[in-house]
Design a protein that fits this description.
Blueprint lengths: L12 H4 L11 E3 L5 E3 L2 E10 L2 E10 L16 H15 L9 E6 L3 E6 L4 E2 H7 L5 H20 L2 E2 L8 E5 L2 E4 L6 E2 L7 E2 L13 H6 L1 E2 L1 H16 L11 H9 L12 H10 L10 H16 L1
Antiparallel strand pairs: 1-3, 2-3, 3-4, 4-6, 5-6, 7-9, 8-11, 9-10, 12-13
Helix pairs in contact: 4-6, 4-9, 6-8, 8-9
Length: about 300
């Protein structure tokens, strides 16, 4: 699992962190066209001039909220969306792990922009939908990298709350990174879970029963989501619980039923998925245990 082979263009510590979180707009060039879009606005490719040359970056650009024709800089931006972007930036600024997308910084100019390292191959689910030749060993390698990133978050008391194949980006076919920290929460020193005050627009099909029933989120609920992510990977980007509504999924889980194994999925991997889908939080493994089991399995099939 040594990713030295897939050296990230952002691995140089001198280049990793600009001196300030706020970036100079004059050093940022945006390309035409979108890499993606969401409620917040768009994502575009760009280049940021760093000490040793221009680095390719992904730029999350906040859309104008349409405040009477005023631009983003003049208060037209949706305040809730801006708060979410700033929250995401605050979380990403504190993370430093090879399997997590790195933040370069924030830029305030014609719009609010969150500048991050670019993972050229895009989301894991979309990549696998188009590349069914990727073999089980390669899939295991990628989900293990995600698990190592999640173990890091667990050790640093961060709960992701939106772990899914759409939020795993590929640098290469052999190098995955976790992204999208818009829902993430840092837990206090005396906390091991986060309780949401209200039900939001949640990715229910990736959520553990305690998230739906009690609005509580922890690293253990991220483990449940990781089980769904593994299912997505080994089904080559299929949608989990296809054709089912969120309420139907909840009823299915309460009855003790789980998704069937994807076609051709190794038995050991499906066993691990089911372990991640353990109903009782206290009986569900943590990422340290899941990562060790995946690591051992990967080395077994690599020898």
């Amino acid at each position: 699992m040594d990713t030295a082979v897939y050296e990230s263009p952002y691995a140089d510590p001198e280049e990793l962190r600009p001196d300030a979180v706020e970036l100079d707009r004059g050093l940022l060039t945006l390309e035409d066209g979108e890499l993606g879009a969401g409620n917040f606005g768009t994502v575009r490719k760009g280049f940021y001039r760093m000490k040793k040359g221009d680095k390719a970056v992904a730029v999350k650009i906040l859309k104008d909220g349409g405040g009477g024709g005023g631009g983003v800089g003049s208060g037209g931006v949706d305040e809730a969306v801006k708060e979410e972007l700033l929250r995401e930036a605050d979380v990403m600024r504190r993370l430093d792990n090879p399997y997590i997308v790195r933040m370069i910084g924030l830029c305030r100019a014609e719009a609010w922009m969150l500048v991050m390292e670019l993972a050229d191959l895009g989301p894991l689910n979309k990549y696998l939908q188009k590349n069914r030749h990727v073999q089980a060993r390669n899939l295991t390698e990628l989900v293990h990298q995600v698990c190592m990133g999640m173990r890091y978050l667990e050790e640093h008391s961060f709960v992701h709350r939106d772990l899914a194949a759409r939020n795993v980006l590929l640098v290469t076919q052999h190098y995955a990174k976790i992204s999208d920290f818009g829902l993430s929460k840092a837990l206090g020193a005396d906390q091991n879970y986060y309780r949401a005050q209200t039900h939001g627009k949640w990715p229910v099909k990736w959520y553990a029963p305690e998230c739906i029933n009690y609005y509580t989120f922890s690293s253990k609920s991220d483990v449940w989501s990781f089980g769904v992510l593994m299912w997505e990977a080994f089904s080559y980007g299929q949608k989990p619980y296809k054709g089912m509504k969120g309420s139907e999924v909840s009823a299915m889980l309460e009855k003790g039923e789980r998704m069937q194994s994807p076609e051709g999925c190794p038995a050991e991997v499906y066993d691990l998925m089911n372990l991640c889908w353990t109903y009782k939080v206290e009986e569900r493994p943590d990422f340290a245990a899941v990562e060790l089991r995946l690591r051992n399995y990967y080395y077994d099939i690599s020898n």
